[in-house]
Design brief:
It contains 1 helix and 6 strands, in the order ββββββα. The protein has a single domain, classed as Roll (PH-domain like), CATH 2.30.29. The radius of gyration is 12 Å and the shape is globular. By secondary structure, the protein is mainly beta.
Length: 93
């Protein structure tokens, strides 16, 4: 998990992402963030830092949260996770 201030790192899971048709939940040692589905503006491939494009970038409209957060799946391909999020109705690319 990264928030443009710091990032988690290591072979063990340090954050998790859960999704339902109504909200995304991202939780880790950088904080816990709940995003109502209507507040999720775009989900797509993360940037170069910190994980060389292998993360998922969450762009949202929730006041008080970092403008962009990133999550790196450990045991799944980024494209597969984005596909699942898209099937739940999220704006995933």
């Amino acid at each position: 998990m990264a928030d443009h201030i710091g990032a988690t790192y290591g072979p063990e899971p340090l954050a998790f992402l859960a999704a339902s048709e109504t909200e995304l939940l991202l939780s880790g040692n950088r904080g816990t963030f709940r995003f109502p589905r209507a507040a999720v503006l775009k989900l797509g491939r993360g940037g170069l830092y910190p994980w060389c494009f292998s993360s998922i970038r969450i762009q949202h409209s929730v006041a008080g949260f970092p403008a962009e957060l990133q999550f790196k799946p450990l045991d799944a391909a980024t494209k597969a996770v984005l596909g699942q999020l898209k099937s739940l109705g999220y704006p995933a690319r």
